[in-house]
Amino acid sequence: MLLLRSITRITIVTTSLLVRACHAAAAYSELSYLDDPELGANLERHPDPNDEHHQNMVYVGRHDADGRRMSRMHDNSIKYIFGTSYDDNHRQIDEDALQHFDGPDVWHDLPKHDHRKTRAQVLKEQRHSQVSERGPKPFGHVDTHRLDGGVVPAQVVSVEPFFIDAHLVTNQEFGQFVSATYYETEAEHFGWSFVLSSFLPVGLQTNESMEVDPDVSHWVVVKGASWKHPEGLHSHYKLHRLQHPVVHVSHKDAAEYCAWRQKRLLGEREWEAAARAGHYGPNNRTLYEWGEEQDWSVASQYANLWGNGSFPNENLAEDGWRGTSPVGSYAPNRLGLYDMTGNVWEWMRGGKHKARIVRGGSYVDSLDGSFNHAATLGARATLHGTTTAGNVGFRCAKAPQRRTEYHWQWHDEGQHGQLSVEDQFGKRDYVPQKEWEDLHDDGIFEDEMDEELGVVRKKKKVVKKVEILSTEL
After folding, report:
1. What contacts 56, CB < 8 A, 6 or more positions away?
2. Under a CB-based contact definition with an 8 Å cutoff, are residues 148 and 86 in contact?
């Protein structure tokens, strides 16, 4: 009995020592990483992405074999084939290209080039080379497919991990923003917005005096139409539309809302990475969100589109809705994201003011592109930044937390004023410094001899500003 107790104690002690050894090894691993001479000691370790969660947002990034989010200590970006769903060029891309891609392509706005040349050299060759027969192209130009408006040819791209709203921003959510900030949308400021002609009262549908969009005559200028009044003053969002996506918002309106939520608009490459939901390679890249089936009975389960009726006057509401539908009414994609195809177009960050990018298609689009856009995963269009219409909304994104980096900043009397004054008795009194000591009470300060000036100067340890190159135009 005594021998058994001794063995049990030894086993418990041994197990305890093994656990402590594992914790010590993990701590040593982190410390050795922080003491890496190439990185320096002014870096914190990367936050664990598995500890970060945001309400009603979905994480889009690489996961390991156990389904856990990969840390920034490894390459955790998503590499996939971006562009129109109709272009067969993606089938010629080798799967290996997705594994050995060099990372975020910050050069993507420049055509074929030699990476050994500097950016200035490439731009100079572009500006002074012989003009092609097709004519010069403006900065940011991309060729698009005639059916879905997607970028051609398809190409391998990479995006950093991000969080994305699971559903489109609703009227109720946008109303909270307006109530808190007294924000006035551009449609409210200008006093009108575009409404689909078949949504107007019967008497106005045949009124030839009404202004229309010169390019698409079925979009009519309606005075008083805005996010509050989707079809004009006779309608209101509070009448059974609180959970519908907000519409009649411009690019600026969308960006302001996201900033208020401490988020931002999506980049279109981020959006497509989320929309494809794992269908990233040449062998699993699908035409639609639900696969390859070009059948309305299947599509109506996943997307709010126009259907089999004659556009723009006949919508049979085969999917249950003539116009917008409440968010979450259709099945989500594999990542848990709703309405990535159909319902309303979504504003993207980037582009130009006269050509802002929208993705995803809307309730006026078709399956095959026989009218308006084909509602594929590559569906893309551009609108003027101030455009507001009854089929354009948005959702927001957020970047994951990053580690904090520090550097030392010298006190500059020219910028911050004199640090101290000395009286006739030799006593030194420190002067409060605007935007320096008084704003950094929790900072670390040190005195150090400046060998060049031969004087002792004060310095502080401050957070280093991090600038990230976007892969979006």
Report:
1. 165, 166, 167
2. yes
